[in-house]
Design a protein that fits this description.
- By secondary structure, the protein is α+β, with helices and mostly antiparallel strands.
- Helices cover 39% and strands 18% of the residues.
- The protein is built from 29 helices and 24 strands.
- The strands form five sheets. It has a six-stranded mixed sheet with strand order 1-2-6-3-5-4, sandwiched between helices. Strands 12-13-19-14-16-15 form a six-stranded mixed sheet, with helices on both faces. It has a five-stranded mixed sheet with strand order 7-11-8-10-9.
- The radius of gyration is 29 Å and the shape is globular.
């Protein structure tokens, strides 16, 4: 079990502070939870909590006109806010050197936010677009949230949704926003959480400096959320056009975790069991505790179960079949095994979801605000393990008999929805003092504090070795959570590059034959097989004691398969980028770009031998392990996985692909817009050079890059591996009517890379951004494992990401400019365009003609 390292303090103004030191974390998370959610709203202020969340980002006395984001975006950080039932949280993660700036910005909007008619109108437009996208424009809009609470609850606070009604919100005034701030956004109604590698006393000094002089003031008491017991089932039915299945959602009242944590967690385990149980005729069955997640609200909260059923099956009949099935589990011989696996899955998911500072800060602050115990975050795994079979069985039987709210959304000619909730509103238990209120947004602007010193990032103790079969193994110790993240990457080789659809079929067959997904979950872990057209990837995690078993699953995946199997699984549609890259690989290998599959059988034995029986590849492990012992265990476990022949897994840089130029036209009659990829193999040299990394950002991987400046359509640059060789690329999605002009603009920018030098003024903000953004690679063991896998499979050393921030600071504008023109030569880049025949044929013909003219 992880021992909580939470420290607490309370300032004189009532602000509660929760601190956790995370040794070695190069980024710091700062989060503020306010004790106001949409259940705090009065009926005449419906939607105000969500509206106010938006307004709090638009300006304060020291950071007016949206300048809140300046220190965040420039440093590759991230910030957001969310509105929940009982709280609103504001969270940001930045390099550790920017801790004081993060505290300063949160304090400034707690002290003196600015609300204007303009910002209010802008945010109302934004909320309208958000509601349209989340509820109105999508199929099954509003299912299950925000419609389901209105079926289960009587009181307005619990039954209404958090969006509100636009016609009512449109009448909101700036004065009403200021009143809402005074009523709810007092320091005493907030929890500030900081998670990072900082001395606790030093952080408290900074907190006192920036928050200590914010005046204490009264704030609204919690709303009255008491609900009468539900005497019988409640049903609401509505209709949805253009769907083929009925959606059913069930809501059960959960035990109050403050009084019965074991009962609450028993329902959490049961919800996972429901989500992993197949029922005949039922699709997309899932269950979860809480509208927004585990322990995300105080009582009353709900267990939500959703499913799709055939339209000919009455919803009541489907619900009866489901509840009877769950009730019968309690007496099934395999119930205990299912419960044990569910507990392991929930614990593993909990550890992975809270491994980084950003997620931990939000969870710690939420649990402190709602339950007064941030330590619950690290206690939950042990408490879940203690939930016995009798508790879970009782919860399962309860699903059969307990009264519930049920929402059925059936196919219909028109969209209909239940009427909005209109029950009694929140009842305050005390009045809020409003004498002589201080208007928000007053006071003098304060100077923005400077950045501190950024410690260099480190992976931790590691081992790097190559097995006799050519597999390179990189193991890194990281004990932030009691798990080990594991990644295996193998090159597809010529056969796989030519026909990635065969690799997809192989993955489906291997998963079914070995049952690795369920077996990894039984070991308190996870495993997933994927391909992107270039690699065969196995990703997952497990507990330290089960690493050998996880590696044993790899050995089973490598066991020989039959030479020919029927193709029974329909191929899934692939993203436009994957389709274009497959066509490019086939073109460079001298094959037809067509992706059709002749015949009804696949020679998966040949594909399997080409990928999994040649050895080679890269295996990465990051977690609570001893790197040397892990490497020795891998050598023993995978000793039989011997190479049959020299594989095609040479590191990029050792393999080269000639620059071919030209263009490929891929026709798709139903495609909206034209997707374009321009790519060229990297020139010989150091593919790990900082200048090349920065050059990619200067060209099109930064929001101020040359390709993005003045471009209204998605366009960006990048570097990856194609056919086992490093390449640089540019991707764009352009409207048909603009495709010719858009491509011409891209060509012009690429041509100017040779004549328009990179200046220090242009490079410095990009340099700062890139160096800071690289720190995200160290946020969690999973992030480290992904970055290490990507680095070593691209021919770089494991310490590349550790060294790169400093190398970036040393790269000169001249070096970066030279790398720009070397990586992105427009006269040697191959175009692949995907879209409707006319526009695609026209743009590829023009590109090919211009390439031919240059070649002459």
């Amino acid at each position: 079990m992880i021992r909580s390292k939470v420290s607490r303090a309370t300032l004189r103004n009532g602000l509660r502070v929760v601190l956790e030191r995370r040794a070695g974390a190069p980024r710091t998370a700062v989060c503020v939870h306010y004790g106001v959610g949409y259940r705090s709203e009065r009926p005449d202020r419906e939607g105000f909590a969500h509206l106010f969340e938006h307004l709090m980002f638009r300006g304060s006395v020291s950071l007016p006109d949206g300048r809140f984001y300046d220190h965040i975006h420039a440093l590759g950080g991230q910030a957001n806010g969310t509105t929940h039932q009982d709280y609103t949280d504001y969270h940001q993660i930045v390099p550790a050197a920017a801790l004081e700036r993060a505290l300063f910005s949160e304090a400034d909007r707690m002290r003196a936010p600015r609300f204007t008619e303009r910002s209010l109108a802008e945010q109302l437009d934004g909320i309208e677009a958000e509601i349209h996208q989340a509820v109105t424009a999508r199929p099954y809009g509003g299912f299950p949230w925000p419609l389901l609470p209105g079926v289960l609850f009587d009181r307005f606070a619990n039954a209404h949704d958090g969006y509100g009604r636009l016609e009512q919100l449109r009448s909101a005034t700036v004065a009403e926003c200021e009143e809402f701030f005074r009523t709810h956004y007092a320091p005493g109604n907030a929890v500030l959480t900081v998670v990072g590698d900082h001395d606790t006393d030093s952080v408290l000094t900074l907190v006192e400096r920036h928050f200590g002089d914010i005046p204490a003031r009264p704030f609204a008491p919690p709303p009255d959320l008491r609900e009468p017991d539900l005497a019988e089932d409640r049903w609401q039915t509505c209709t949805e056009p253009d769907v083929t299945a009925t959606a059913v959602a069930l809501a059960y009242r959960l035990p109050d975790p403050r009084d019965d944590m074991a009962g609450y967690l028993a329902h959490t385990v049961l919800a996972d069991m429901v989500s992993h149980h197949d029922l005949e005729g039922i699709r997309s069955l899932s269950a979860a505790c809480g509208v927004f997640g585990l322990l995300d609200a105080i009582d009353p909260d709900v267990l939500v179960i959703t499913a799709l059923v055939p339209p000919e099956v009455p919803p009541q009949q489907a619900v009866q079949a489901m509840t009877q099935q769950w009730s019968s589990w309690a007496d099934h011989p395999r119930f205990e095994r299912s419960r044990t696996r569910a507990v392991r899955r929930v614990i593993t998911r909990h550890h992975r979801e809270h491994a980084d500072a950003y997620a931990r800060s939000r969870a710690l602050g939420r649990l402190e605000l709602l339950f007064g115990r941030a330590e619950l975050l690290d206690e939950l795994p042990a408490r879940l393990s203690e939930v016995g079979p009798d508790r879970v069985a009782a919860a399962a039987r309860r699903l059969h008999t307990a009264a519930k709210g049920a929402l059925a959304m059936t196919p219909g000619a028109v969209r209909t929805r239940p009427a909005p909730a209109a029950g009694p509103g929140p009842v305050a238990t005390a009045a809020v003092a409003t004498a002589a209120p201080v208007p928000p947004g007053t006071g003098s602007a304060r100077p923005i504090p400077p950045l501190g010193v950024q410690a260099p990032p480190r992976h931790g103790p590691r081992r790097d070795m190559t097995l006799a079969n050519g597999t390179r193994v990189v193991a890194v110790r990281d004990d932030r959570i009691p798990l080990v993240e594991l990644r295996l990457r193998l090159p597809l080789g010529t056969a796989g590059w030519q026909r990635p659809e065969d690799v997809n079929a192989l993955i489906h067959m291997l998963a079914g034959r070995t049952g690795v997904t369920a077996r990894a979950q039984a070991q308190a872990g996870a495993i997933q097989l994927t391909t992107d057209g270039e690699w065969f990837d196995v990703s997952g995690c497990t507990v330290p004691d089960a690493v050998g078993d996880w590696l044993g699953l790899l050995r089973e995946l490598a066991a020989p398969v039959g030479d020919s199997v029927p193709l029974r699984t329909p191929l899934r549609p692939r993203a436009a980028e994957a389709v274009m890259d497959t066509a490019l690989r086939r073109h460079r290998l001298g094959c037809s770009p067509s992706s059709s599959i002749p015949g009804g059988h696949l020679d998966l034995g040949r594909v399997h031998r080409g990928i999994l029986r040649e050895g080679g590849g890269w295996l990465v492990a990051v977690g609570d392990i001893d790197p040397d012992r892990f490497a020795a265990g891998v050598e023993r476990t995978l000793r039989s996985w011997q190479a049959d022949s020299p594989g095609e897994g040479a590191a990029p840089g050792e393999r080269t692909v000639p620059r071919t130029g030209g263009a490929l036209a891929l026709h798709h009659d139903a495609m909206s817009g034209v997707h374009v990829t321009l790519s060229a193999p990297e020139p010989a040299g150091d593919t790990a050079a900082a200048a090349r990394y920065l050059a990619t950002a200067v060209v099109g991987a930064h929001h101020r890059s040359r390709l993005r400046s003045g471009h209204d359509h998605p366009v960006y640059s990048g570097r990856d591996v194609c056919l086992g060789a490093a390449r640089a690329y540019v991707r764009a999605t352009l409207p048909e009517q603009y495709v010719m002009g858009g491509v011409a603009d891209i060509r012009k920018v690429l041509n100017e890379l040779r004549t328009v030098p990179v200046t220090a003024a242009e490079l410095d903000p990009i340099r700062t951004f890139c160096a800071a953004q690289l720190l995200t690679a160290f946020d969690s063991p999973a992030a480290k494992a992904d970055v290490l896998r990507d680095a070593v499979s691209a021919g770089r050393q494991p310490d590349w990401v550790e060294r790169l921030p400093e190398l970036i600071r040393r790269a000169t504008p001249a070096e970066v400019g030279a790398a720009c023109s070397e990586l992105f030569p427009s006269d040697a880049m191959t175009m692949v365009a995907l879209g409707r025949p006319g526009p695609v044929s026209e743009v590829t013909a023009r590109w090919a003609d211009e390439y031919a003219a240059v070649a002459r």
